[in-house]
Amino acid sequence: MPLLEIKNLTVSFDTAAGPFLAVRGIDLSIEPREVLAIVGESGSGKSVSMLAVMGLLPKTATVKADRMAFDGVDLLGLSPAARRRIVGKDISMIFQEPIASLNPCFTVGFQIEEVLRFHMGMDRAQRRARAIELMKLVGIPDPEARLSSFPHQMSGGQCQRVMIAIAIACNPKLLIADEPTTALDVTIQKQILDLLVSLQAKYGMGLIMITHNMGVVAETADRVIVQYKGRKMEEADVLSLFESPKSNYTRALLSALPENAVGDRLPTVSDMMFEPAPSASGGAA
Amino acid sequence: MLRYILGKLALIIPTFIGITILAFGFVRILPGDPVLVLAGERGLSPERHTALMHQFGFDQPIWQQYLTYLTNILSGDFGTSFSTKTPVLKDFLVRFPATVELAIFAMIFAVIFGVAFGIFAAIRRGSWFDQLTMGTALAGYSMPIFWWGLLLIIVFSGMLHWTPVSGRIDLLYFFKPVTGFMTIDSLISGQKGAFRSAVSHLILPTIVLGTIPLAVIARQTRSAMLEVLGEDYVRTARAKGLAPRRVIGLHAFRNALIPVVTTIGLQVGTLLTGAILTESIFSWPGIGKWMIDAISKRDYFTVQGGLLLIALIVMAVNLIVDVLYAVINPRIRSN
Known about the structure:
Chain A is α/β, with parallel strands linked by helices. Helices cover 38% and strands 24% of the residues of chain A. Chain A has twelve helices and eleven strands.
């Protein structure tokens, strides 16, 4: 049984100009212990579809799917309270801007222990012990002292480590990482990616990596989904995607990597699109 | 944290000097000869006039008058009232508890309702509740205090007889002031019905004085909440699977509180200004009414001293707000 199974997911937003379709019939599934990368440029609906799984979209969003099941449980059929018992515990998510994602008014210790209190029902001493353990796991030195730090006293990389600590606190079955390294320095990016991959292997989590960085895909993923304008362009295991991309869009995306630059000019995706992708005509605007 | 507080304290010194210059200057700009006012309408011999001018130091150069004034203040001498012949500070302290009691009740009223309305309006942005509360808040903010006070008296005291018209307590009750707070003193006195009477006298003045701060706090809370609800950390809190009550009440509100506390602090100044009108309407024996009486009597030293004392209170409150600000905002604390 797949860990997460999505069939024909559509997400639309109410706007002043009428409904805007951000995700148009995406199918997706991930097995336990698998690393799935979702790639695409900005606006391809990759974050939106995962926020729909988490139930984090604003009220203006309408989420429809033939099936959206996590571990065999239909997420769309659950009451909000029942869904909150899964979200943050069995499925967790980390985001692009680690500093902004942590609450500036609370210590990182408080923010880690909060999930332990609500999902695991731990008492104060247990929470503190587990928080220290988690801080060690994600590689934050001097965890006892750092627990009483505020987010603004830490670097972006450390904040992302704290976010990862919060995300893995309750031993989730699935971790969704939404561009986890985009806002970080290049050297830190590598460390965070290595950390995510090692934690995924250690705890046997499913990992969905949302990214627009093909390097990240090559380093981490088992399987890749390429999205463009809310539609799935291609789905393949990582080796065949890089060796023999099937869709024009994937080919264009790969050719636009900086190492493929010819002369002074960096190829862009639209240069490489020999023919319009099936979805391109149905543009959102 | 200590450095932060010391820094704020240091900033108070120039503000204090500025206020003394204003208080000193205003009174001297006012038309009319203080000695003539003091002596009354009857004729005053030029010799007596000169003697009085000398007695009050009005014949000295202005800078010397100011220096004497400043030295006196620093030694706790705020002058002596022309009319009551008692030190201004003493007169002030007798009336101050009445104003504080009213201001505290008005502030509690404004904060509780203002914050609650602001939060609910933000959560249900665009709903009828949002539009109704924000429209009412605008009306409340624009309403003249004296008109609003008179309207409430007409309806609740005159027509419905629910509340007393004026004063702090029924004439039936008499007890020695202990704290100066009628609600507390009436409880201490143990007289039956006294506390009830004190509270019923507070209701209308509290509403009148609290209306403008309530409106301002409600609007500020709403906009602060709207801003904070879109922040990434609120999404993180929801991604943790926390209940909406905790996401909004703790994670969002704690951040929205920062601008709201500043607003509340600023409203204390408005509250003291409002107290002047409210106390006059309800014959509330506080410093507002005292100041109005002093102005109409041209009691220079009382006006000057009262102005400065009120300014000092506002400064002290602002200092407390600044400290509170650091307590709720860790980013300020560590800078």
